[in-house]
Amino acid sequence: MKLTQLLIVIAMIFTTSACKNWIYRIDIPQGNYLDDRDVKKLRISMTKEQVIYVLGRPVVEDSFDKNTWYYVYEMKRGMSSRGEDFKKDLIIDFIDGKLVKVEGDFELSEEFDVPLDA
């Protein structure tokens, strides 16, 4: 009798472990989602207010340097069938309240070096 109960338990363990991909797991996005079209709207000498209008507020403002903003976006996939986890960063530097440098995982437009008021 105990042998049949043990076999039933083992069979249940193997059948339920085969169903682990049936469980729905949600994707977990964190941070600022930035679209490539919005990043391409950035131009040198934009003010902080103009950058906020285009991209939104940054996730992180450096506590020691108020002229550096960090836009970070991370996606953790709940299921591998929907793609891989990824992370994108954008670092923006200002001098005297004007945009001077952009670094990160995004392509800038060819007109980045042309100010808006030119």
Question: What does this 3D model show about the protein?
Answer:
This protein has helices at residues 2-17, 36-39, 48-55; strands spanning 28-31, 60-61, 68-76, 86-95, 98-104. Strand 2 and strand 3 form a beta hairpin. The protein is rod-shaped and about 85 Å long. It has a domain at 24-104: Beta-lactamase Inhibitory Protein, Chain:B, domain 1. Strands 1, 2, 3, 4 and 5 form a five-stranded antiparallel β-sheet that branches. The termini are far apart. It has 118 residues and is an alpha+beta fold. The chain contains three helices and five strands.
**If classified by CATH, what would the architecture of the domain at 24-104 be?**
2-Layer Sandwich
Detail the poorly predicted runs.
none
Radius of gyration: 24 Å
Structural class: alpha+beta
How many beta-strand segments?
Answer: 5
Largest sheet: 5 strands, antiparallel
CATH topology of the domain at 24-104: Beta-lactamase Inhibitory Protein, Chain:B, domain 1
Q: What proportion of the residues is helical, as a percent range?
A: 10-25%
Helix and strand pattern: HEHHEEEE
Mean pLDDT: 87
The amount of beta strand, in percent, is 25-35%
Shape designation: rod-shaped
Total DSSP helices = 3
> First CA to last CA: what distance?
88 Å
State the CATH class of the domain at 24-104.
Answer: Alpha Beta
Protein name: Outer membrane protein assembly factor BamE
Main location: membrane
Family: Belongs to the BamE family.
GO molecular function: protein-macromolecule adaptor activity
